[in-house]
Write a structure and sequence with these properties.
The structure is a homodimer of 290-residue chains. By secondary structure, chain A is an alpha/beta fold. Chain A contains 10 helices and 11 strands. At the A-B interface, helix 5, helix 7 and strand 6 of A face helix 5, helix 7 and strand 6 of B. Chains A, B: Belongs to the tetrahydrofolate dehydrogenase/cyclohydrolase family.
C-alpha cells in the first residue's frame, strides 16, 4: 500500500519555514516582504482564493496589498495599476488573479508584470528563465509538486519521470523542473499513442490533464511515486452530491504505487505555500539577500 | 538500408525558397531584408562562418551588414552597437557570432538583442516565447532538424521522439518543437539510466550530445528516423588524418533506421539556411507581412 503524501502537512511546515525566513528578512531589511494581489470583478471562486491568500500572507508575517477593481475596469487602468506595483518598492511580488473578466487581455496584463516580481511565474520572461536555467520564478503548482517529490525521494537524478499534460502553467514547467533535477523526462498528452505503456515505465508520474481518474491503477509501475495535480468535481454515490477526484484512479494506484498524493489534500495546499515561498525569495533577491 | 537524408540538398532548396520570399518582400516593402552580423576578434573558425553567412545572405537577395570589431572591444562599445542595430530600421535580424573574446559577457550581449530581431533564437525572451507557444524565433539548428523531420515524415503527431542532450541551444528547444508537433517527447542525457532502452522506444531520435558515435546501431528501432546533430573530429584510419563523425554510429544505425542524416551533409548545412529563413520571417513580421 502506497504512502499517502500529506500535502497539507507539508504545506503547513513550508509556511512555517517561510515565516522564519520572513523574520530574518525583516531583521535585515527593516521592512516586511510585500505581496500585491489584484482581483478584478466578482468571481466567487476567485474571491475565496484571494481571501485565503491574504490570510496566509499576513500569517506568514508579510504585507498583503489587496487591490479590488470593478468588473468594468479598463485595460488601461489595470495596466496602470500593474505599472504602479512594479514601481512600488514595498511590493516584492505581484499576482493578478485569473480569470479576468471578459474584454480584458489576460496575456497583456500578465506580461506587464516585472519578471523580478512575477511570483506566479506566468510571464514569458519567467518561462524563458526557467527554460534556460536562469534564476527566476516558477509557477506555484509545479514548484509544489517538485518539493513534494524531493521530500519523498531525495535526489531525483536518473529517475524516469512522465508528465501527463503539456499546459504552460503545469505540464511544461514541471518537465523543465524535473529535467533540471536530471530526471529522464517524458512529456505525454492527449496525442500520446500508448499512454499506459508510457506510464508503466515511470518512476515518477505527474498527472495534470484535468480528466477525472483517467490514469488507471494498473498503469502504475510498482513502487512509483504519483503526483496528482487534477482537481475534478464529479457526482458522488449519494444522489445530488458531488466529490473531488484527481486525474488518477486513487484506489487503484494506491495498491501499486510507492507513494501518492491524495485529492484533496495533496498538491492543492502547496499552491499558496509556494506563492509565499516565491514572495520571500523575490524580497530577498530584491534586497540582495538571496 | 536507411534513406540518407540529404541536408545539403534540402538546405539549397530552402535557400531558394527564401530567395523567392525575399523577392516578394522587396516588391511589397520597397527594401531588402537586412541581416547584421557582429564579429568580435580574429577567431579563424568564426571568420569562416561569418564569411559563409555573408555570401549566402547576399545570394538570397538580402542586405548583409557586417560589423567586425577588434578583440579588445569593450563591453560598453559592443552593447552600444547592439542597441544601434536594434534601433536601425534596415536591420531585421541581428546575429552576434559566438564565442566572444574573453572578458566580454556573452549572456549580457545576447540578452540585449531585441527579441523581434533575435534570428539566432538565443535570448531568454525567445526561449520563453517558444516555451509558451508564442510566435518567436527558434535557434537555427533545432529548427533545421524539425524541417528535415517534417519533410521526411509529414505529420509528427503521436510519434515517440527522444532527444539526447539538454543544451539550451539544441536539446531543449528541439524538445519544445517536437512537443508543439504533438510528439510524445523524452529528453535523455548523461544521467539517463538505460539510454539504449530509451532510444529503442523512439520513432524519432535526435542526438545532440557531442560525443563521437555514442549512439549505437543496435539501439535504433527498425524504421526510426535518426537526426544526428553531432559534428566531432576524430582520427581517421590514415595516420595523421582526421575525419568528421556524428554522435551516432552511422554504419550501424543505417542498417536499421528508416532514414538518417549523414555527418557531414545532414544537419550542418541547414543552419545557415534557417538563419536566412528566420531573417526573412523577422522582416515580414516587422513590416506586418507575416
Amino acid at each position: 500500500m502506497a504512502t499517502r503524501i500529506d500535502g497539507k502537512a507539508f504545506a503547513a511546515s513550508l509556511r512555517e519555514k517561510v515565516a522564519e525566513g520572513v523574520a530574518t528578512f525583516v531583521a535585515k531589511a527593516g521592512r516586511k516582504p510585500g505581496l500585491a494581489v489584484v482581483l478584478v470583478g466578482e468571481d466567487p471562486a476567485s474571491q475565496v482564493y484571494v481571501r485565503n491568500k491574504h490570510k496566509m500572507t499576513v500569517a506568514a508575517g508579510m504585507e498583503s496589498f489587496e487591490h479590488r477593481l470593478p468588473a468594468d475596469t479598463s485595460q488601461e487602468a489595470l495596466l496602470a495599476l500593474v505599472d504602479q506595483l512594479n514601481a512600488d518598492p514595498a511590493v516584492d511580488g505581484i499576482l493578478v488573479q485569473l480569470p479576468l473578466p471578459k474584454g480584458l487581455d489576460e496575456n497583456a496584463v500578465i506580461q506587464a508584470i516585472d519578471p523580478d516580481k512575477d511570483v506566479d511565474g506566468f510571464t514569458t520572461a519567467s518561462a524563458g528563465r526557467l527554460a534556460t536555467g536562469l534564476p527566476g520564478f516558477v509557477a506555484c503548482t509545479p514548484l509544489g509538486c517538485l518539493m513534494l517529490l524531493k521530500d519523498q525521494l531525495g535526489d531525483l537524478s536518473g529517475k524516469n519521470a512522465v508528465v501527463i499534460g503539456r499546459s504552460n502553467i503545469v505540464g511544461k514547467p514541471m518537465a523543465q523542473l524535473l529535467l533540471q533535477e536530471s530526471c529522464t523526462v517524458t512529456i505525454a498528452h492527449s496525442r500520446t499513442v500508448d499512454l499506459p505503456a508510457v506510464v508503466r515505465g515511470a518512476d515518477i508520474v505527474v498527472a495534470a490533464v484535468g480528466r477525472p481518474e483517467m490514469v488507471k491503477g494498473d498503469w502504475i509501475k510498482p513502487g512509483a511515486t504519483v503526483i496528482d495535480v487534477g482537481i475534478n468535481r464529479v457526482p458522488a454515490a449519494e444522489e445530488g452530491k458531488t466529490k473531488l477526484v484527481g486525474d488518477v484512479d486513487f484506489a487503484g494506484a494506491e495498491a501499486t504505487a510507492g507513494a501518492i498524493t491524495p485529492v484533496p489534500g495533496g498538491v492543492g495546499p502547496m499552491t499558496i505555500a509556494c506563492l509565499l515561498y516565491n514572495t520571500l525569495e523575490a524580497a530577498n533577491r530584491r534586497e540582495g539577500l538571496a
